[in-house]
User: What shape does this take?
Amino acid sequence: MRNKLIDTARDHLSSNGEARFFVNSYLERILDNYDDGVDESDKVRLVHAFASVVTEAPVNYSPEVHIDGLKIKNKEFNLGRSYSLRPVSEDDLALEFRSEGKALNSSGFGQFAPMGVVEFEVQTEDISNVFNKRDSVLSTLQLYDLVSLCEVTINPNPLLRGHLSRRPAYGIRRRDVPQLPYQMQLDENSDGERLARFFEEIQPIVHHRVSKSSTDTFVSIAFNRYQNALVDDDSEESRLTSAIMSLEALFLGNEGELSDKLSRRTGILLGHEGENEIEVYDKIKQAYRVRSNYVHASKDQSGRENNQPDNINKLTDRVLDYTRRCIIIALQLSNEMVEEKSVTMRSAKKRILNDIQNASLNDDARESFHETFDDAVEFRTESRGQ
Assistant: This one.
């Protein structure tokens, strides 16, 4: 009887990954089927046996993540490996309003109506893995372009007809951001193939080295500061300061001459991606002055040269794009070293900085660095969002 009950439980689990959420109803059905000749004490033991099987079994989740900051022009973006982006439907908006109890404004939408929906599949025993996947998806999209992408809501399991999940400890919430500095529109004709290829290469690395990482690494710190710059609505100086702090996490250690080394190393790295090293050097030096003035409360003079009020805006966009591209490259370089050479992320950073430093000294070292770069960096970056 015991084995028969457990076999039945396994059948239910294999045919319906949501069994964890319907334990009571399944137990009732199973115990009804095997009620003859089973006393109450046996039922208790059988229930415990079934519960242990359910606890150990993975659950199939199909989350729907409602996002803001990213408008999807066409029907859907298939990103491969069960990931997709699609426009918001009327059902999505209805669920938003019903779940939140939001009052509609004059246009018929809530205060923070979502602009798109991310869908994917996860099979896991721990629901926190769903949110780690969610974080890696949104983070990868933020690296694809300059976009202030924020979660509005997440429904971890659309089959459950309850309220949408609210987990403010995970990621950045739209309700906390009055304005989004960077909006982006995806056009399938121009972005579809490139975005799918970018997602295939970068999302797994982001998941393991940023979203899922239990400890802070130089790339996770850099990304968090980059993300802060994307959603910061305080001032251009504040955003630019966050961008410089992100580059500092990538390219500096405990050393002096920070401004010069940061500018030079950023230039060398992006120079191999087709940027003019001298121009990159000059922009980073200028941005570093903005950062220093801002940190030391000289905000009125930072970056506004020649009485051009939009100069700081252009500089911020340019440096943020440099930062985005450097993070993408650093993720690939460090991941290659960790995977192939079994080094720690701390050691990977030291090796990268050492290679860049040597590349600045002689042509042979630069050629060697370019070979390392080409072997590790599968997805080459390009300037976007400007």
